Amino acid sequence: AGEGGGTGSKPVFELIYQLSILNKHETDPLTFSAGAIANFKVDPDHVNTVKVNGLAGKYVLDYSKDPMRPALEIENEHFIKPLARDGGGSSTSSASSASSASNASNTSNASNTSNTSRLYVDCPKEGDVLFCPGSQHHFDVRNQHGFSDVLLETRGNRRNSVAVAAARKAKPVRLQPGDVWHGEATFTAFDRYWPITAFEMEHDQTNIPVPAREEALLKIRRSLEESATV
After folding, report:
1. Are 23 and 176 in contact (CB under 8 A)?
2. Which pLDDT score, from 0 to 100, does residue 142 have?
3. pTM for this structure?
């Protein structure tokens, strides 16, 4: 991930997950899905600062209500908060279905009693998928080879963790006899929050983990003061 996938901070550690599958059948092809799941411990008291950045505009297969018949949606939220819920129990990431748009509001510390399982399709190596566990650090989740999707899962009775997976599920692998499939994904940890953009300051300022929000506001305040004195 280098300098944090564009975050500007150096990694604390990097977990490299590698998987190889050989089809030993002499005549039959092998069709399968695969994934590398990381369960991240999060802060259940600050659910709106537990968020994922980098999946806006992706097609989503939502398995939450019916694992056999997932709903197809488009993710509209830039900052997805998998643990945050509104009063009706719908996701705070306002994803649009083919038939209607969902306008869910963000409400901090609301109840979450349901399980969620959302597969984000076509997430290549070049894209930054960043996860903040609600504190002053973040993780870069990256499909290096073979994997093409990102899966987000929560469990209603486990408010202190979020599962993020590099996956190959939307388009399963079809492996011919004697062939080998290789998959690789990286999970990179950084000891700082990702760089705060003007968009985040405008649309999600109150959900930036402290003290990053205070530092950013101080820089902006100083910049405004300097501009006023020119």
Report:
1. yes
2. 95
3. 0.78
